[in-house]
Automatic annotation (TrEMBL), chain A:
The gene is trpB. It catalyses: (1S,2R)-1-C-(indol-3-yl)glycerol 3-phosphate + L-serine = D-glyceraldehyde 3-phosphate + L-tryptophan + H2O. The keyword Lyase applies. GO terms for molecular function: tryptophan synthase activity. This is Tryptophan synthase beta chain. InterPro entries: Trp_synth_b_CS, Trp_synth_beta, Trp_synth_beta/beta-like, TrpB-like_PALP, TrpB-like_PALP_sf. HAMAP family: Trp_synth_beta.
Length: 401, 262
């Protein structure tokens, strides 16, 4: 069953008032073609079975829903479960989307792929998918993120991708998106742009959500099987919003399930100190779609800060904006320090080193669990593993590796 | 213009690069050269359609705290200044700015500041219906862009909401100087001519008189952005005075003005 909340977007890419296409005319035809091709692929059994086969044998799906017994005891309260996206090939949820979009790239007869990356996870997942299918891959990455995510930069290059440093603006994710869009403007006939989150012009927010929905679908079935009921609360971190959208979407029509998105609270609520778009932003246009953004009163994008390169983004997907305004999903923020604490607790209690992005969701789940009844189940999307972050975490903790 | 048998020259400058006083001085200089229309770009933090030259100029202006209302104020006093007659002004502005400023407020203030039209590069024809009604109410033209990748049925829909002129993008890509204009441009202009009576202005990549010669008889006007905007970098060069930079921009504009006559 679909409802007014789950039956979105419409044909013009609207999630309520959000979404749509605010891009130069040069890209419009390609977006129309992509929408058509995607709709066809969705109906095409051979596309779906190829995708499912790759998700199973290459990505390693389904990944487990894991009961974190020690962390649950440590918090005292509700039962904490983790959806283990960190166990996917490449160690994050991003690969669900890149495999799907790489298959589409080939359907469209294109040989060149561009992508943008913050934490590098989407860059790695794009490089992997391109290597797997023999596509040329160029990844745009801010200079600041190249510094923070050296391991992933090396991995991308090993897999044959070209990493292009972006030196404009804040030298982070949003500037990488700008440069990727510009490349696409002049290469759109030969190139597909694999956007890494549920952002950008229609059909990207819908398409990326669909590819990521495998997370929530599996979680739903696993939860029913392992606990005999739907979860009480589902928690995921929100950068652009793809792991959370994939996790939440299959639960949207289950009114009993509380959904919580966790943004990067950074150093605090002042402008420039955080990346909590839904908590502090206002409606506006950024990177081709209409949704909540962090902007000044003239529409100039504000600087953002987060300890995690993957959450360091001043916008958010239009469907999250829609969920916020409809009240279906609650959004909150976790600070850098709280996330660091979540990271360390998770490592000690569960022997799992989480991505610093995911650590935001973990830190919030720990708060929620303390308040919850022991019969309640809280499912957290563990969006990625933390190998890429250990150097940065060590630096922040003042330790040497 | 076409009755005089020449093409219209429409230079583009960035507002507030490096400050609004300079913008005013350059506007006067361009007006004195007799240019037909001036496009004023509103600096935006995240431009997608612009190449590096124009992006850098936006960054210079924003680093110097450019604000939309200050531009409107400055233009208002300039248009009441009896000593200068400005050609029509067209704003090039991202929809991100218009929306946040408030569409009606933006349109009314733009109109009061002397703008006669707007180009909103990230508001494609499909999304422009509602906004084009608002621009009409504010007595502003909404110039629409057509790219070489726009198929004919899209073009037909787009030209219906357009007014002022049609901005024909010469290449699929971003703004920036290019050596040669693509050969397909001529056929593209010919087919556009069949679909609209509005004047056709070509932009993106144009920088020299030879480019203008290839457009003669096919387009009604041309827009030059990056080739002018790159000269603004010299304002922060201590080896040149402000007056020198402005007169060099003027010389370039005069040279392109002569090119309009062939
Ligand atoms: C592990 C991990 N989690 C979360 C994110 C945030 O992205 P999104 O909000 O699209 O899931 C990233 C982005 O790079 C990531 O690498």
């Amino acid at each position: 069953m679909t409802t007014i909340l789950s039956d979105v977007p419409d044909a013009s890419g609207r999630f309520g008032e959000f979404g749509r296409r605010f891009v130069p005319e040069t890209l419009m035809h390609a977006l129309e073609e992509l929408t058509q091709e995607y709709e066809k692929a969705k109906q095409d059994e051979s596309f779906q079975s190829e995708l499912n086969d790759l998700l199973k044998h290459y990505v390693g799906r389904p990944n487990p829903l894991y009961f974190a017994e020690r962390l649950t005891k440590h918090c005292g309260g509700g039962k904490i479960y983790f959806k283990r996206e960190d166990l996917n090939h490449t160690g994050a949820h991003k690969i669900n989307n890149t495999i799907g979009q790489a298959l589409l790239t080939m359907r469209m007869g294109k040989k060149r792929v561009i992508a943008e990356t913050g934490a590098g996870q989407h860059g790695v997942a794009s490089a992997v998918a391109c290597a797997r299918f023999g596509l040329e891959c160029i990844v745009y990455m801010g200079e600041e993120d190249i510094r923070r995510q050296k391991l992933n930069v090396f991995n991308m290059k090993m897999m044959g991708a070209e990493v292009r440093a972006v030196t404009s603006g804040s030298k982070t994710l949003r500037d990488a998106v700008n440069d990727a869009m510009r490349d696409w403007m002049s290469s759109v006939e030969s190139t597909h742009y694999i956007i890494g989150s549920v952002i950008g012009p229609h059909p990207f927010p819908m398409m990326v959500r669909d590819f990521q929905s495998v997370i929530g679908k599996e979680t739903r079935a696993q939860c029913l099987e392992q606990t005999g009921k739907l979860p009480d609360q589902v928690i995921a971190c929100v950068g652009g919003g793809s792991n959370s959208a994939g996790m939440f979407y299959p639960f949207i029509d289950d009114e009993s399930v509380k959904l919580i998105g966790v943004e990067a609270g950074g150093r605090g609520p002042e402008p420039g100190e955080h990346a909590s778009t839904l908590s502090y932003g206002a409606k506006g246009v950024l990177h081709g779609s209409f949704g909540y953004v962090l902007q000044d009163s003239d529409g100039q994008t504000q600087d953002v800060h987060s300890i995690s390169a993957g959450l360091d983004y001043p916008g958010v997907g239009p469907e999250h904006s829609y969920w916020k305004d409809s009240g279906r999903v609650n959004y909150t923020a976790i600070t850098d320090n709280e996330a660091l604490e979540g990271f360390q607790t998770m490592a000690k209690q569960e022997g799992i080193i989480p991505a610093i992005e995911s650590s935001h969701a973990i830190a919030h789940a720990m708060k929620v669990a303390r308040e919850a009844h022991p019969d309640e189940t809280i499912v957290v999307c563990l969006s990625g593993r933390g190998d890429k972050d250990v150097n940065e975490v060590a630096r922040l903790l003042g330790q040497e590796i | 213009m076409s009755s005089e048998g020449r093409m219209a020259f429409m230079p583009f400058i960035t507002a507030g690069d490096p400050d609004l006083d300079t913008t005013v001085a350059v506007l006067k200089e361009l007006a004195n050269c007799g240019v037909d229309l001036i496009e004023i770009g509103f600096p935006y933090s995240d431009p997608i359609a612009d190449g590096p030259v124009i992006q850098e100029s936006y960054t210079r202006a924003l680093n110097n705290h450019f604000q939309v209302h200050e531009l409107f104020d400055v233009l208002k006093s300039l248009s009441s200044d009896q000593t200068t007659t400005l050609p029509p002004l067209v704003g090039m502005v991202s929809y991100a700015i218009i929306f946040r400023y408030g569409a009606e407020k933006f349109l009314n203030e733009a109109s009061a500041a002397g703008f006669s039209g707007l180009i909103v590069p990230d508001l494609p024809g499909d999304e422009a219906l509602e906004f084009s009604q608002k621009t009409q109410l504010a007595n502003l033209d909404l110039v629409q862009l057509v790219s070489p990748l726009t198929p004919e049925d899209r073009t037909k829909r787009i030209v219906q909401t357009a007014s002022g002129f049609i901005y024909c993008i010469s290449v699929a890509g971003t703004t920036g100087v290019r050596d040669e204009l693509p050969a397909e441009l001529t056929t593209h202009l010919e087919s556009l001519r069949q679909l609209t009576d509005l004047p056709l202005a070509v932009g993106f990549g144009i920088s020299k008189p030879e480019h203008v010669d290839t457009l003669r008889g096919k387009a009604d006007g041309f827009i030059i952005g990056s080739a002018i905007v790159k000269q603004f970098a010299a304002f922060s060069d201590s080896n040149q005075t402000r007056a020198e930079v402005i007169s060099s921009i003027g010389n370039y504009a005069s040279e392109m003005m002569s090119a309009t006559r062939g």
